[in-house]
Amino acid sequence: MADQPETQPTLLEDTDHKRVGRLYILFGFAFMVVGGLAGFALRLGLAQPGSSQPDEYARSFSLHVTVLALLALPAIWAGLSTHLVPLQIGANRVAFPRLHAASLWVHVAGGGLMIASYGMKGLGVLGPSLPLPVNLKGPASTADQLWVTGGGLVAIAALAVAISLLTTIVTLRAPAVRLARLPLFTWAVLATAAVSVVSIPVHLAGLTILYIDRHFGGEFFAAAGSDDVWRHSVWLLGRPEIFLLTLPGLGVAAAVAASHARRPLLGEDGIRGALIAAAVLSLAVWAAGSAASVSLLAPTFSPFAALAALVPLTMIPAWAGTVALGRPRLHPSLGFVAGAAAVGGLAALNAVVALVVDGEAGAWSTGYLHAGFFMPPLLLASAALWHWAPKLWGRRFGDAAGWGAALLLVGGSVVQSGASFIAGYQGAANRTAEAGSLALNRLAGAGAVLTLLGLAIVIIEIARASFAGPERDLADDAWGESEGLEWTVASPPARRNFESLPGAAPAVTATVDDSRAAEASDEIGDAQPEPVGAAT
Amino acid sequence: MSTLDTTLALPSGDSALPARALKLGALAAGVAGLMLCGALAAAYLGVRSRAAEWPPEGFKVDSFLGVMLTLTALMTATFAAWALTADARGQRRQAAAALTLAAFVGLCLLNGVWYLGTRVNLGAASSPYATMTYALLGGIGVLLAAGVIGLLAAVAKVGGRQTGPGFLGVVQAAVWFWLLTLTAWIVVWTTLFLVK
Predict the structure, then answer these.
(1) How distant, in Å, are the alpha carbons of A116, A257, A327, B151 from that of A238?
(2) What is the nearest CA distance from A158 to chain B, expressed in angstroms?
(3) What is the 3-state secondary structure of chain B?
(4) pLDDT above 80 (res B80)
(5) pLDDT of residue A236
(6) pLDDT tens across A72-128, in order?
(7) What's the number of CA atoms in the CB half-sphere (13 Å) around residue B167?
(8) How far apart are CA A271 and CA A273, in angstroms?
């Protein structure tokens, strides 16, 4: 077995999953700042009518949606998964460490290209959001090609991470960790990765066609039926992704609820099934058609879409019941989870109202997207950061900062989305700089300010933990009574996570699968550490 | 000597990679490649169904070349299956020979796809048909190149006696990816030459 290196490899050559994961998180939040500021610029424009030109507004809108949906939230989840999954399954590495590390830099490079394209002249922002960020029918420009190339790199990076995580979870588990008893966060990551492997190549196909068309100055997208090609290629990535951005967070919520309620999760098997159902249904919703050409993110009340959205909501009673029946410790991560449930519930409530109230308009969808699909993942990712900070950075994040961030993020989201919902019911249009009543736009702008302040606190805590270094004498299980293998190793874990196969932690006390253990033993030979039973 | 004692040139995970990991990774990558070509084929069919003229007037699809390339794909698939069987039986020389043949015929297939691209002789963006044809050929070309590289890596591993129990299952991984890539070629061939 290779000895632990004496010197820390440089950032570019390091393949340690923990460092790669932390970098993914840092870059994810850097992208979040860019996307957040673009959104804030939109709000400023709406609060001062006439202050921005329609094309500037469309460009900011596209930048806001594209960066948050493709660059920021996926990178944060990729980082958390990369860091935590091997720890949760008793592995010392990810399956393909070099591929995994390379994917980080490809994601950053691709994201950089996409953002740079917005600063160049000639990016034909035909549609104001992700489905049509590039002018499909007009003259091609360098900016268009830059956007498409960046998008392709980001997609390739995401595919590489999905393959690596999928392989890691299926093949690198310690013998005692049975697939059916995986920790729920890892289980959710497995479902997310499996769907990503199928959906991302479809988007890549769309980008390939778009690149050929843009680069060679063609008229493919002027042909009858070609708009559908692009729309479907985006849908098959985008529609599942909208749900997949929340899916790992549902695993986070389950882990946080159980850990801080200090009791086993209620209905764990049901939640396991629901996570798989949500993943499968998310793949099915791509076919949910819509009349509007830019309706990728808009709600479609098809049975599949409704079911996919409904499944996560069914988990909320399980989290709440676990906390109610346990001995809850008031930890900020619980606050983030409760906030995510509240904001998601607000979106669900308005989805029901929209079914009976006629005339919900474009501004309604802005509120729905923020409350239903962007804020819950951000809140759940923040919950994960506060919960697993001892493993990520060897420090606990501040409680006061956590509660402050949770209140600002939830409050800002409710104000912003609430104002958008009301504007929508009043018939306000969306995606134009002159939409809706001034008072409601200013109220939504105030909500955006609160959200940005909450985000700033999260980023400050990450920066503080990154620069301050690990706490002294921090216990392996920083919260006490936590379940899961990650709490059996040091905080932060050593470069080599487990010196020997981890002992039977409460989350994985299921019977050792003898056939798997024997198989693993055959494959790894004499280097296989002691089986769990012997270790204990 | 097991792989575990081998010092890696670059820092990496410090524990052994089970054979199943490489195989599953190759399988997932192969499925992703298949989805890529499937999506391109779906786009081709979607646009074709609404086109007034498909392919462009005066353009003749060379079915003969398509059939020849598909026969080439079947040949390389046979060699790949032979390599798989030989590896499973521990017949190292046979595995090396079969992999080499599979890689060589694979290169011929790649060359044929390239030739096909030059024979199309349409501007890549001159019509939706041309755009889709080049997208399909480009997509399968990238996958075939990756597959040939995988086969050559497997040849090197077999030549270096790094196969068999305790090793990474690189032969199986390379062959599985290759067979899925050849399946993707069948999708492309069906789209371009049978459905047209």
Answers:
(1) 22, 29, 40, 34
(2) 12
(3) CCHHHCCCCCCCCCCCCCHHHHHHHHHHHHHHHHHHHHHHHHHHHHHHCCCCCCCCCCCCCCHHHHHHHHHHHHHHHHHHHHHHHHHHCCCHHHHHHHHHHHHHHHHHHHHHHHHHHHHHCCCCCCCHHHHHHHHHHHHHHHHHHHHHHHHHHHHHHHHCCCCCCCCCCHHHHHHHHHHHHHHHHHHHHHHHHHHC
(4) yes
(5) 59
(6) 999 999 999 999 999 999 888 899 999 999 999 999 999 999 999 888 876 766 444
(7) 18
(8) 5
The span from the CA of A332 to the CA of A409, in Å, is: 12
- Burial class for A8, CB neighbours closer than 10 Å (0-12, 13-18, 19+): exposed
Structure tokens at A135: 């002018």
* A213 to B47: CB separation less than 8 angstroms, yes or no: no
SS3 (DSSP) at A69: helix
CA-only gyration radius of chain B, Å: 19
CB contact under 8 A, B43 and A14: no
Residues 6+ apart with CB under 8 A from A378: A32, A73, A409, A455
Place of tokens 């020997």: A500
| A486 secondary structure, DSSP code | G
Compute and round to an integer the Cα radius of gyration of chain A.
23
The tokens describing A336, both together, are 């983030």
CA distance A84 to A64: 28
Q: Which of residues 293-312 of A touch B (CB under 8 A)?
A: none
Q: Rounded distance, CA A147 to CA A156, Å?
A: 14
Residue % of chain A over a pLDDT of 70: 76
What average pLDDT does range B95-100 have in this prediction?
94
Contact A166, B24 (CB under 8 A): yes
> Is B148 a residue whose pLDDT tops 90?
yes
Select the highest-mean-pLDDT range: A263-272, A429-438, B50-59, B170-179: B170-179
User: If contacts are CB pairs under 8 Å, which of residues 506-525 in chain A contact chain B?
Assistant: 520, 522-525
Q: Region A2-17: what's the mean pLDDT?
A: 71
At B168, the pLDDT band (50, 70, 90 cuts) reads low
d(CA B14, CA A510): 27
